[in-house]
UniProtKB/TrEMBL annotation:
Keywords: Membrane, Transmembrane, Transmembrane helix. The keyword Transmembrane applies. The chain crosses the membrane at residues 46-69, 81-105, 117-142. It comes from the Eukaryota. The keyword Transmembrane helix applies. It is found in: Membrane. It comes from Balaenoptera acutorostrata. This is Claudin domain-containing protein 1 isoform X3. GO terms for cellular component: membrane. InterPro entries: CLDN1 (IPR042356), PMP22/EMP/MP20/Claudin (IPR004031).
Length: 158
C-alpha cells in the first residue's frame, strides 16, 4: 500500500462494454480480487434507468389502448407499470449512491474535486416520486371510473 497513485481528474467516456467491467477490491489493482458488491451496484445503476424507460413506454402504449378501448383494466395496468418504473428509478438512484459511498471508502477525493451530486442526480431523485404520483393517479382514475361505470349500468337497468 506504500505505492502512490497520481489521480487524473479529467472526464473520459466509457464504451458499453466498459460499463460492465468488474470492479476490484482495491481500485486500480487488478490482483486484489473482484468486489462483487460494487460491480453489481454499478451494473444495476446503469441498467435500471433503461428498464424504467421501457416500462414507461409500455405503460404509455397501454394507456393509449385504454383510451381507444374505453376499458378500466388497461388503466390499472398503466398505473402498475408506472409504479414499477418508479421503483426502478429509485433503485437506480440508491445503487448509484451506495456505489459512490463504497468507492469513497476505498479512495479519497483529489484536492480540487468536490464530491457533490450533479443536476442529473437531482432530476432522478425528483422523477421517482413523480412516477409514484402518476401511478397513484392512474389507479385512482380507474377506481373512480369503475364506480361511475357501475352507477351508469345500474341506472340503465332500472
Amino acid at each position: 500500500m506504500g505505492e502512490s497513485f497520481d489521480m487524473v481528474t479529467k472526464c473520459i467516456s466509457f464504451t458499453l462494454n466498459e460499463q460492465f467491467v468488474e470492479k476490484f477490491v482495491d481500485p486500480g489493482n487488478h490482483n486484489s480480487g473482484i468486489d462483487l458488491l460494487r460491480t453489481y451496484l454499478w451494473r444495476c445503476q446503469f441498467l435500471l434507468p433503461f428498464v424504467s424507460l421501457g416500462l414507461m413506454c409500455f405503460g404509455a402504449l397501454i394507456g393509449l389502448c385504454a383510451c381507444i378501448c374505453r376499458s378500466l383494466y388497461p388503466t390499472i395496468a398503466t398505473g402498475i407499470l408506472h409504479l414499477l418504473a418508479g421503483l426502478c428509478t429509485l433503485g437506480s438512484v440508491s445503487c448509484y449512491v451506495a456505489g459512490i459511498e463504497l468507492l469513497h471508502q476505498k479512495l479519497e477525493l483529489p484536492e480540487n474535486v468536490s464530491g457533490e451530486f450533479g443536476w442529473s442526480f437531482c432530476l432522478a431523485c425528483v422523477s421517482a416520486p413523480l412516477q409514484f404520483m402518476a401511478s397513484a393517479l392512474f389507479v385512482w382514475a380507474a377506481h373512480t371510473n369503475r364506480k361511475e361505470y357501475t352507477f351508469m349500468k345500474a341506472y340503465r337497468v332500472a
